[in-house]
Amino acid sequence: MKPAYKILPYAALLLLALTPLLTAQILRLTLEQMVERTDGAVHGTITASHVTHLPETKDGVDMFFTTLTIEGENLISGQSQTIAVSFPGGFVDEHTGVWNSEAPSTDDQRIGNRVVAFWKVCDDLGGGFSGNALYTSHGGLFRTFEDKRGRAIVLGRGKGYAVELNQRLPVLRKSIKGLDRAKQERKTEKRKNNNRNF
Amino acid sequence: MLFLLGFLSAWLLWGLGWSEGSHLFELPADNPLRTHTLVAAALAVIGLAMAVVPRMFAGPRGALPWMCGLTLGIAACGLLQPISADSASGPGAWILLAILPLLIFKGRNQDPDARERSDPLPTLGESLPVALGGIGLGLALTAIATPITRMLPPDGADQAIMVVTFLGLTTLSLWLLGSWLGKQEEEREASRLLICLCLGGLVCALSLRSTASLTRPSGLREVVGLVGLDVADAGTWAFDLLITVVALGPLALLSGSLLHLAHQGRMFLALLAGTGVGIAIEPLISEAFTSPDAAFASSWPTIAVAGGICMALVGAIWRPQNLTILAAISGGLALWWFAPGPAPVLKAWVRFATQPEWVVEHSVGEIALTPGHEGNPRVTLDQRALTGASVRAGIDAKILARSAKDLSFAAEIPSALLVGQLDLPRSLGLIDLGFDHADRTAFFHAAMPRLEKELFEQAPAGRISGEILTPGSAWKRMQDGAYDLVLVPAIPERTPTLPLLTDLPPRTRVMAWLDGGAAVARMRLPKRILLVADGVFDLCVGVQLAGADRDEDWFTPGPAAQEPIALQRLSKRPAAWPNLYRALLLERCAAGEEAIDDAQPRADFLRALATMLRAQKPSNPFESRAEAFEINNNHMAELAATVHAGASGRFVEETVFGIARVLVEKRRVEAIQDYLGPISTAWGRPLELELALAAADIESLDAQSALKHLQGFVTSDPRLESLQEAAEALLGAQEGPDGD
Description:
The structure holds 2 protein chains of 2 kinds.
Chain A: H1 4-18, H2 31-37, E1 40-54, E2 63-74, E3 80-88, E4 90-91, E5 97-98, E6 114-126, E7 129-134, E8 141-146, E9 152-154, E10 167-168, H3 169-197
Parallel strand pairs in A: 3-7
Antiparallel strand pairs in A: 1-2, 1-6, 2-3, 4-5, 6-7, 6-8, 8-9, 9-10
Helix pairs in contact in A: 2-3
Chain B: H1 2-17, H2 32-52, H3 64-79, H4 89-108, H5 124-151, H6 156-181, H7 189-214, H8 217-225, H9 237-261, H10 265-288, E1 296-297, H11 300-318, H12 322-338, E2 358-362, E3 365-370, E4 378-381, E5 384-385, H13 393-403, E6 415-419, H14 424-432, E7 437-441, H15 448-455, H16 471-479, E8 485-488, E9 509-515, E10 530-534, E11 538-546, H17 566-569, H18 577-594, H19 600-614, H20 625-628, H21 633-644, H22 650-666, H23 669-682, H24 687-699, H25 703-710, H26 718-735
């Protein structure tokens, strides 16, 4: 099995040819940076979507947040997990809501989609709304599909995104686990050093 | 009786105002001179009818029943009918003429005692200033309505709301002011009428001020925000009503006062006739006020000011009293102070509207040149695209090719006549199709030299040889058989009446195209039409108006669709309607196809496509067209089933290929493999579908399968090359030392 890093440069050509140029400006992160900054990653099915309207928030304007419920597997622990992740934007009815340039596309957030999502617990996404933030909005959500042989493939989003190129899910899972292990080890080391200094 | 007269007058006026496209050269753009002149003539006829029976207006509110009838009549004609209903002025005019003698008889017998009294009819000297003031009112009304009309969708529903709102406010003013003004002595009425006219200057200035604020996006947002609306609501009834009240409210109040004060027959005729003349000459004046070399030349503010000054001065000149002179001076100053500068009017609901480079007023409307993609500027007339640059380039090229398909050139120099604007893509398209000469014409032909100078500045060699002709000259050349092809490209959102063409040489093929996203489904269509699709985003209807029969993928439209009435259209935002109109059109064609043997699968395909179009919803404006288009697996399954049942033909292929491109951009790998794979096999592996399947395989990291799909094609399509490169690179990586 060829390592993912060997395939990546060649599939980049595909993404240059196929991926639409996104005009939104979100934080550019590698996979390592994404794992470092987030509290978890899940692969599962979007089973529900709900929009919360916060009228006249302390920030002075109405705010809207979309929350997706994802049922699946935690990519780090391997345990079953159901999690709700939120991002700014959305409509409560045909006329009430806001569009957000950084939100995932309608295709990406459709109920029934299988996705990989990176999330971080956040006390205030805006206007006092707290929850699990879909990290970097559309940059933290990646659709997956099954190829003709039934293998799950994650759709990469291109340069600057945590999952740059298409790759098989087990490969991504292994990468995330490895990166998270390294992150935990660094944290433990840091705690030990702090205790020693103290 | 007056109420009935008003209702019938509305029927007549609405039909005349809505009659368009009866001439071939009117298909891209109306001839507003004709429309405005007809409306003016109708106003004069109505005024004449009123003048015959002066006693019908006896009393302080004589005109009120007539105005109520007129308002309700316009509401009924304009809002309770489907939008593209054929002109109804025919029946209205005949009924009006038929009952006029009855009205005259009834009017004369209304008050037998009054026959004994002498009738203090106004003199010609008193009527003339009223007529002149009416001209000013007509100019001001038409000019101030112009930018408001351009902000809204161009179909009759929005215009109907504007007219009904204006007439409603006028009627209200007539009723409220009538009771106050009616207490005054009669012999002072003429004087008060002139004072009222003098105040027209001030009132016009007020209207100008409020209209100018509406033409700026920030001003518009502020005004509509006061009642909880958004600029995206432009084209809904609440929005249209609000901006009409803001822009035309002051003039409506003035009109009501004038109507009350002019209620005696001859004065009424003078007011209506004058107003009609003002409406009729406004298009001529707009062109005369415009310098052809100016970058921005919007004449509506100037004409509105002229109308206001006309009203202000009339009274001061005829009755030079303190009040009239003061009113005239105040009006003049207010007009000078509030007159806005020329500025392009942008569509209210377009979020990121592009500023035009060049705008000029023409008698047919506002022509603008806007930068487009890839260096191809776009020409618009009242915000409707006259050229196919940018997103419409694909469908424009297709209708050009289909118009000339299998055309045999009879003349030594293959020649075409384009009824519309020539631009670089169209010029190159005509050259590629074998034409050596292409004349151009339309009712905006006077603006074409300047437009072509801008459009061909970067590539002068790309302009096909030919002349810009007046409609008269072009028609003569057509009749002399100078052209192999006469082409009228589709203009978005227009539903003109299609003309009947006779006396043309049989070698001349005349093709007119209509935008499928407009309310075409309700129109009278011929027995066979062409449907051309640019994938799923654009649909055009082609009608061969003249020329020899030919073998083509014709569709048979069924009976006219029962499309929603105008009031229903106004309850939704306009962005929702093009897909619904396309769905109605496809369903109409499906009904027609079902009547033909062996055409059931194609009818089913049309219905499945219509279902998909009806499912479209408003999308994030930051998404691409493909991302914003809704296709779910049910839609795909239904469409695929019809194809496997035998649906075929050029339109079916164009649509399926378009869907393939959308699915590739959406990265819907499973849908491509499950639904397009079998279709590609059934159709003998067409390039478009094989490219989509190859792209899906590359997404699946299956390089070998991708290369198989790309084998055997020889084409200059850049997608083939880039997919081949990606697949080969992927294969190389997979076959390397560390590969599978």
